[in-house]
Amino acid sequence: MALDVLVRLLILAAVASAMPVPGAADPAGAGLAIGFYDKTCPKAEELVLEEMRDIVHEDRTLGPALLRLLFHDCFVRGCDGSIMLKSRSKKGERDAKPMSYSLRGFDEVERIKAKLEDECPLTVSCADIIIMAARDAVYLTNGPRFPVETGRRDGKVSSCLDAENDLAPPNANIVDLKTYFSVKNLSWKDLVVLSGSHTIGRAQCNAFAPDRLYNNSGKGVQDPTLDKAYAPELRERCEPGNEKDETPVDMDPKSPYEFDLSYYRDVLSNRTLFVSDQALLDDKLTRDYVARMAAAESTEEYFHDYATAMINMGRMEVLTGDNGEIRKICSAYVD
């Protein structure tokens, strides 16, 4: 395990041990509920879906981008909308590199927020907008549309250091990945199920090419686990030695905008972009799940599991009740 990853994991464990962890006595993340806005803003979810339809129609890459935004929000200080906050001193979550590099969807969250402010001012949180938009991004790529719990309030703190410590790097091994998830009270199954989000969207070469194509484990070689026929295709797209290469590559080349089971078939065939995807084969439980989904004839089981895992993630360290705030503008400055 690399020293910098070990340090991040030790920090995560120390923070997690000092925090109350939602459990059986707190099944809905301390105040969350399905239909939280039914009385205060009954058209909220309808308006989010309506706006998301337009956003994805205008640019289909924004659906996966908003799904990624949710992950970055929830894994850093919980699902509290703090990923939206700006920092004049460049010390906020969205300034973290490389963890938050190339994040998109900020303007689209503001666009949805403006619609909701017109309908019901200072009622729906930015945190809830992010999770509803991500859910609809999945649905609009032919994935499941499942109920999401709402009632989150927005956090007032955004730290670059938190993002650097709390987000698993794309070259994480299976032990590290399970640790990153477990300190957030998520299981191995949440890990392997949520990893399936990589069935839609794209990644920039700089996020995976160094580890997978050109300098695996710092040895100046290609990752030996990468499919030998797939690697040349990726090398045609990604320039060696260019750490700023922003060339986009589909994460699931066969169906990059179809929420399906192709991701698991890619993992099993050693044809994924990230070391962290390949790592799912290095643990019996995650490997067996990958193999079962790769062979499945129906998405029914996976869609059920995905809805459950998204709800689990959405409960992480939430602010409810009198905690946090409801912002009129999501991208406020913290300094």
Low-confidence residue ranges: 9-28
Q: Roughly what percent helix?
A: 40-55%
Question: What is the straight-line distance between the termini?
Answer: 36 Å
Structural class: mainly alpha
What kind of oligomer do you see?
single chain
What is the 3D shape?
globular
- Spatially, the strands of the biggest sheet line up as 1-2
Overall pLDDT metric: 92
**Tally the helices: what do you get?**
14
Main beta sheet strand tally, sense and closure:
2 strands, antiparallel
Radius of gyration using CA atoms only: 19 Å
SS elements, strand count: 4
Q: Beta fraction of the residues?
A: under 5%
String of helices and strands: HEHHHHEHHHEHHEHHHH
Write the layout of secondary structure elements.
Elements lengths: L2 H15 L15 E2 L9 H15 L3 H14 L30 H14 L6 H14 L9 E2 L9 H7 L7 H9 L5 H7 L7 E3 H10 L16 H7 L10 E3 L11 H7 L6 H4 L5 H12 L4 H15 L21
Antiparallel strand pairs: 1-2, 3-4
Helix pairs in contact: 2-4, 2-5, 3-5, 4-5, 8-13, 8-14, 11-13
General description of the model:
By secondary structure, the chain is mostly helical. Helices cover 45% and strands 3% of the residues. It has helices spanning 3-17, 44-58, 62-75, 106-119, 126-139, 160-166, 174-182, 188-194, 205-214, 231-237, 262-268, 275-278, 284-295, 300-314, and strands at residues 33-34, 149-150, 202-204, 248-250. It has a two-stranded antiparallel ribbon with strand order 1-2. Strands 3-4 form a two-stranded antiparallel sheet. α2 (44-58) packs across α5 (126-139). Mean pLDDT is 92; it is low at 9-28.
